[in-house]
Amino acid sequence: MYHQTALYIDGEWCQGSEGITSDVFNPATGEVIGQVPHASRADLQRAVDASVRAFEQWRHVTPHERVKVLRKAGDLLRERVEGIARLMTLEQGKPLAESRGELLFAAEHIDWCADEGRRLYGRIVPGRASNVRQLVIREPVGPVAAFSPWNFPVSQMIRKIAGALATGCTVTIKAPEETPASCMEAVRCFADAGVPRGALNLVFGVPSEISNFLIPAQGIRKVSFTGSVPVGKKLAALAAENMKRCTMELGGHAPTIAFGDVDPTWVAETLAAVKFRNAGQTCISPTRFYIHESIHDAFVERFVEIASSLRVGDGMSADTQMGPLANPRRVAAMEHFVDDAVHHGARVATGGKRLAGSGYFYAPTVLVDVPEEAAIMNEEPFGPIVPIARFKSFEEVVARANRLPFGLAAYAFSRSLETTAALSERIEAGMLSVNGALLTSPETPFGGIKDSGFGSEGGIEGMESYLTTKLISEIRVGGRVSELGGA
Ligand code: NAD
Predict the structure, then answer these.
(1) pTM value?
(2) 156 CA distance to ligand 1 centroid (A)?
């Protein structure tokens, strides 16, 4: 059921002009299930040229018309959810229910951006003289080069595409080589909905070769990247060298703090429900657990109970609760984190090993009494491992939460408004979830601070990132234009 994948350039589905491909794997079996074509430099140039040409047309399509096309794309994605979800699970590994949920969320994101595209208002600033009128208008920034990751193959890609197209920009997206088929089918929804040729191009290849070509390319005006901090820093530097605007949505290491006044069982259940989603390969996943010493043991007991009873298996099976990791690199990373934590004195409360079989499976793992020096307390795990540490006081836990260079998501649990209000002010993160794990919706800004990047996707802030500001200062020189000798 896996099918031939393709690039989409200037309105045509095609293979790379140099015939280069790489393998696509099913992470649940480790088997090769298909090939992904690589775009050559000539293909990339065609994509850039097409997006520059299409921009001159798409930017002038009224928001009223754009919304119809984009809404149709969202509807098509919903109609095709079953087929695309199966492709995504085959190539990425997540359970089918999660793939469906991701696609439905992506469709909502398209709807929201489409509608918000009608509200890209400017303003009038009173002049300093009575014959002066000052208009501030918003214009689409131009053709965008976007790079999206494999953990949420469609929703991460669609955040970029929907924001760009809804504001009148065109976009060339390098989607993940690990998951080309689901990305291709999501792009097909836009094509079938009537997005004009060239306004949306899809490419795959060697990531660094593509970014080195697209970011400096003449005609590209903005860069949007979601991925790791080291790669983000490189791409941001390249964008800066070429004076291109950019949005960087990078990794984090979310401090997750439970104070002593909460029910530890409820917090354990709330966190377990989100922690193992996508096998923990989520940039806002709760990743460093600081549990107040007074509730620590009860929390660990319930959390371990849930983690150890999760059904891990092929995402295509209806009863699977957690699938494999997306690639063998992640399994190797998990092994390193656990060995290192144990070496630093942590105890494995459950899991701590790869699972038998040919797929990339790693057991849901809980580590307790993990010292701050362990690698897992300093590097984003991006997998199903939960390191837990105890804390005593508010000041101590704030210092520990803020000590890393990351600042994406954070989670806090307390019944005291005084505590959560103080934490809201003190925590260094782009997003804080209090007494729950709700951080992602199309209408709210999603993004980090510090090394976790800059700019937002979602919310009006996400739309802003695709717009430039123009001031028009008009001086009325008296009389009608025709009386002044104008046309
Ligand atoms: P990686 O750093 O090699 O790749 C991360 C992503 O960036 C991939 O999608 C890859 O295709 C892309 N990429 C890599 N080099 C690039 C380049 N020079 N130009 C353009 N794109 C490039 O790491 P990985 O092993 O694939 O993933 C592991 C790490 O990546 C995780 O630890 C996590 O921090 C990060 N990651 C973050 C997110 C996120 O949602 N923020 C998503 C995926 C991966």
Answers:
(1) 0.96
(2) 12
